[in-house]
Amino acid sequence: MSEDKIHPVDSRNQEEPAPRERVSRRDFIKGIGGFGLFAVLGGNLARGLLLPDDVIAFPASEGYLLVDSKKCQGCNTCMMACSLAHHGVQNLSLSRIQVNQDPFAAWPNDKSIEQCRQCPGAPCVAVCPTGANHIDAANGNVRRVDANKCIGCQRCVAACPLGQSRADWNFEEKHAQKCDLCAETPHWTSKGGENGDQACKAVCPVGAISFTKEIPLQDDRGYNVNLRDASWAQLSYPTK
Amino acid sequence: MHDQLLFSSAVWLVWAAPFLGVFAAGFTRRRDPHISGDKVLRHDGAAILEHWTHGVGTAVLLLSGILLGLRFGFTPSFVSGKDIALWMNIHFVAVIVFLFGTFYYAANTVLSSHRFAEHLPTKNAFQFTKQHYGKLLGFKFDMPAEDKYFESEKVAYLLAVAATLGVIVTGFVKVVAHMVSVPGWVMGPVSLLHDISTVAMLTFFLAHVFFAAIAPFSWPVLSSMFTGYVSLEQAQHEHAGWYARLRGDREQEQAESEERDVA
Questions:
Q1: Is A12's pLDDT higher than 70?
Q2: Residues B49, B40, B122, CA angle at the centre, nearest 5°?
Q3: Tens-place pLDDT, residues A91-142
Q4: How confident is the model at residue A4 (pLDDT cuts 50, 70, 90)?
Q5: Cβ-nearest to A29 among B1, B25, B73
Q6: Which of A145, A146, A154, B45 is the most buried (most CB within 10 A)?
Q7: Which of B3, B9, B11, B12 would best serve as a mutation to test chain A binding (most A beta carbons within 10 A)?
Q8: Cα B145 to Cα B134: distance, rounded to the nearest angstrom
Q9: CB distance A152–B3 less than 8 Å?
Q10: Candidates 1.10.10.10, 3.30.360.10, 2.30.30.90, 1.20.950.20; correct CATH number of B2-262?
Q11: Which of these, B222, B198, B226, lies nearest to B210 by C-alpha position?
């Protein structure tokens, strides 16, 4: 590209066309920059004014863990099984299901099992800026974290509406993690996921954890249920 | 409850900044180095703007990026909780400044390609560097006729270009991941390359700051990054090759001017 001047046509040879005016490098640079700016700003304006607001709707999970905290013995076997199945080590801090024990509370209300509720609204998925925490359609729409895409912002941890966040920070592998209904358990030979088994449920010695495909009532009563049958009354357990 | 992440809410700025830099370059008129009395113009206004936007952007990017990146390493996390979003937003602001400065420089270089050429090392790179720093260390070497940029600086420039390219390309992919779903098998290597480019950039940055700002023998030239000028004596002594080139240009201009007057 150069800034050639326009040459006047030679009157003796009317057939020779005048050379076109060329675009200089400077004009090209201005053009590229200006067009790019226009495209970005214009696109942003159009997006804001013309496109409707995004509506985020997540498909419901096809599986939910239900627990009976009053039945729980506080043995922590579920926590060890969870960390073992996912990470190959028994580490209560790496478990995606947590059992809390309150020494000041009266039995049988002294323990609580805090499992991920696979929320229909999935706030942990909604706030993830990179889609690391996502709806896994291949595994029954379970809400799970792709560790390779996690940038460690921990917004999912902050977003969990439950008192103890069900999304937590894996301090060893440096990424967020959460219950995936055992969809990905490299250290467990059983098939997990919404159509398979869950390690915590499989190992619980008293059957305080169960699984359902129906969406539970969206409060504590829906997820913390009564799994005690009449035989538990013989042990002086409340069965209601 | 949820801190605003600028990488998600203001991502359009990441795409606008480079184009703004290119657009600004289209309207920039450069002043070539020349001898002016007892001083020499080393850096014009555009060079000063390019340098400080790119440089300050780099400095803040390195600080914020390393703080954020160390959460994934073998060190304790220096940032956690709400601080993570704060430092990511600081990183974002530095990205905008850095991209503007870098693309402003790149576009100016397209318009004045001879400026790029004078940044590249020549066949004298090893010999000049040995003589130059050998003399500083006390060996009996003659000061080589260095050009505007020392040969050692020209070699370091290659590292800076490679690091800048690496961090920008991988950074763009990481920004795109905030807009569309990028597969995890892509993000893993991209993040690793971003880390490697960061280390390369940090290496260049530390060396550059030491040799250009902290070492006392660089202070006369450091002022030129603010005022644009170096003393004639500095140019003659430290950049004899450049000084000779400028004098040759001036004499050629004077000769051409005399020819025009005669004509």
A1: no
A2: 80
A3: 999 999 999 999 999 989 999 999 999 999 999 999 999 999 999 999 999 9
A4: very low
A5: B25
A6: A145
A7: B12
A8: 14
A9: no
A10: 1.20.950.20
A11: B222
